Structure formats: C-alpha cells, structure tokens
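Q: what sequence does this backbone want?
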C-alpha cells in the first residue's frame, strides 16, 4: 500500500454529504433563571437555503439559558411592536427579522432584539452572506442575543473538530462541524488512526497526530488551503499537541529521551525544547489561557495526577489530590476553571475545579477527552453508550446536558474551536 493511499487529503475541506451524516442533538436539563424569549418567524425567510429563525431558536434552546415562547406569527424588523402584548404572553424579549435575496445572489439577513420589560430595542444586526453561510448568519444572531441577555459572549458561531472512526473498515476521519453538529466537513481521511486534534487560536489550522507512517507523528493542517506539514517526528512517540495562546508554539509529549516528557516547539518545527524533567511519564500538556503555565498529567507521585509548571520549565506543583487517577487537564479561556477526567467509583467522570478556591464539581459520568467552549460556559467530551462513542456537552454548573449522536461510526476526541474573527 502506498503512502498516498494511506492518507487521503483534501485540497481544502470536503463539504459534508449524506455519506457523513449530521449529528443529532438532544438536550436534557435547563439553566437557572431561564430567560423567556419569543422568536418570530422572519419575513421572507423561505427564500434562503436555511430557516434563520429555526436555527436561532435551536441554538438558544440547547444552551439551556432560555425558555422559548412560540410567537405564532411572522414579524420583520420593521414591524410595529406591541410590548404589552408580548409581556402579557410571558416574554421578556422578542426576536424579529427578515431575509432578502440580493441581486448578486447573496442573502441579507436583518434582525432586531426587543426588551418587552423596558419597552425598547436592545440590539440589531444586518448581514449579507453567500448561500452556504446563511446558517452562520443565524448563529451570529444567536450569539448576539445570548450576549445581550446574559452578559456572556455566545459560542454558537464556532466550530468543533473531532475524530470519526470506524475501526472495522479502517476508516478514520478528522471532521469539522458547526457547534450544533451540523455542516460536517472532512479535513483529513486515513486508514490509520488519527488522534488529538487541537485548534489554532485563529481557527484556521488544526494540529493532530497521525499514524499513517506506522508511528505517531504530529502534523499541522491548514483548513483553508488543505496544505499540511510535519511539525514533530522524533524517535519514539510524538503526541498530544496543544497550541500556545499566541499561536506561535505547540506543547507536545515526546518519548525521544526515554520516558515521555513535555516539550515546547515552534509551529514550524523549530526550537524544540524539553520543559519537564521527571523519572515518570509526563504527558497531555496544555497551555494556560495566558500562556505562562503548562498543565499536564504525570505519574511522578505514583498514579496519574494533574500538575502545573512554568511554560519555561522548572519545578512542578500538583493540582489534583482527590482520587488516585486524574488525567486530561483542560483550562477555560478565562483561566479560572480546570476540567479533567477522574477515575472514581469504577468509572471515568468529568470534573471541574475552581482554580482559586480548589472546589470541585462532578459534571458527568462515562466521560473522556474534555474540551471547553471558547466562552468557558460549556464543556464537550466523549462518552460511551449503547456500544458506541459519541459526543456530549455539559454546562460548567452541570445543569444543562446535550448529547450529539450520529448514525454511524464512533465520534471521539472533540476539540472546541475558538471564536472566529
């Protein structure tokens, strides 16, 4: 078998089709103090390939933060609003809008957000997009609504990367999808395993580990051009890439000197430098939000635990103390919360810790491979059920849970992408 047949690369992303089924989202639980909001059908939205109001409604509903009130009508952004009527129907906010097809083939989406309590307009937005980006226009509106009503930035217009594997068919795909599991695209396809995808901070590249050369090697893939390059191919295992916040470096786990240890390397493969030094295994490194600290897993104290050290190396401090098996550290974008997987009571559970107080919260069971949303409000993870691995999402307070399932394959190794510019 030739190397070319081992890995099929795209010139850019391959658009999703029926061969790569969209994921289905199920929502369980709600956030505290849900905000009642009415979302009217947008005027003339039938001309667009995507129903804008339905996507906005689904985004807000799966966040768990909103109670959706059926508007039962079509209202454009120019419609006269009877605030008392909507307030009497229990809506604290109202979303209205319209869609127009422009002469150049693009679709212009207009929207307004009204506060029925203060009887005023809270926000408005006008976007013109090509047909294939109309779903993105809807996600951006949902983000605007989320931010105006909760005070936190929405993450609906972001993307996720994950591995879709069918071991029996030796089919491994690195896939990219919208945060709601729709619009699936294939970035890399191989008949050898692909693991550990990690987004660049600007959302244009993904680092990952491929076994196409019969050993783990770290690559960086440009999602715009489809071009890719080997970043680290040292003797032994090359694994667990994670980007620095400024996008210039990767922290990786290499076994080139014997035991697996943590290294830092430029994204062009230059300046490889070892930063951890123990007689055990140091792996799964992750930069902190400010790039000054690296969190990692080490068995230097016996069983695996989470440690942290300066990004320049030096002495390490232990972070986890409860339980004898703690792995897969991830840090929120604001640097306040650590998520990780702990083996307790015979299974693997997802935990979150407030790094200031050290207080822990058990968020989900049967969980591996966590990844924070860029706003730090949700964590995506892999979970097993019904003999298949799929993805799930839980809010950092544990109140809201989503499950993303697909008809075929095992979906795992999720990595939630950054906010897009």
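A:
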């Amino acid at each position: 078998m030739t190397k070319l047949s081992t890995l099929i690369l795209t010139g850019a992303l391959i658009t999703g089709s029926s061969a790569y089924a969209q994921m289905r989202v199920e929502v369980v639980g709600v956030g505290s103090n849900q905000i009642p909001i009415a979302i009217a059908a947008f005027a003339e939205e039938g001309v667009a390939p995507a129903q804008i109001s339905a996507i906005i409604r689904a985004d807000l509903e799966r966040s768990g933060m909103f109670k959706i009130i059926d508007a039962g009508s079509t209202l454009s952004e120019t419609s006269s609003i009877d605030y008392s009527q909507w307030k009497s129907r229990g809506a604290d906010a109202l979303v209205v809008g319209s869609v127009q097809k422009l002469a150049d083939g693009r679709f212009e989406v207009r929207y307004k957000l009204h506060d029925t309590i203060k009887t005023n307009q809270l926000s408005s937005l006008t976007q013109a997009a090509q047909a294939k980006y109309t779903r993105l226009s809807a996600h951006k509106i949902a983000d605007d609504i989320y931010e105006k009503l909760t005070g936190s930035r929405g993450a609906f217009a972001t993307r996720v990367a994950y591995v879709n594997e069918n071991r029996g068919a030796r089919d491994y795909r690195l896939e990219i999808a919208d945060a709601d599991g729709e619009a699936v695209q294939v970035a890399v396809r191989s008949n050898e395993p692909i693991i550990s995808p990690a987004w660049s901070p600007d959302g244009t590249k993904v680092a990952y580990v491929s076994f196409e050369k019969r050993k783990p090697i770290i690559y960086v893939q440009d999602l715009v051009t489809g071009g890719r390059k080997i970043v680290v191919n040292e003797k032994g295992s090359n694994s667990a890439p994670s980007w620095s916040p400024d996008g210039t470096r990767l922290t990786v786990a290499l076994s080139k000197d014997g035991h697996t240890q943590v290294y830092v390397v430029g994204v062009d493969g230059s300046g490889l430098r070892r930063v951890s030094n123990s007689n055990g295994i140091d792996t799964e490194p992750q930069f902190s939000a400010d790039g000054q600290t690296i969190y990692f897993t080490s068995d230097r104290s016996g069983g695996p635990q989470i440690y942290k050290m300066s990004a320049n190396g030096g002495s390490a401090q232990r972070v986890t103390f409860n339980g004898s098996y703690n792995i897969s550290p991830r840090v929120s974008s604001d640097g306040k919360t650590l998520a990780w997987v702990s083996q307790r009571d015979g299974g693997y559970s997802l935990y979150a810790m407030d790094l200031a107080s050290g207080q822990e919260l058990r968020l989900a069971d049967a969980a591996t491979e966590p990844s924070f949303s860029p706003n730090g409000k949700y964590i995506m993870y892999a979970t097993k059920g019904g003999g298949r691995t799929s993805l799930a999402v839980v809010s950092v307070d544990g109140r809201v849970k989503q499950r993303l399932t697909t008809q075929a394959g095992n979906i795992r190794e999720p990595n939630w992408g950054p906010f897009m510019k």
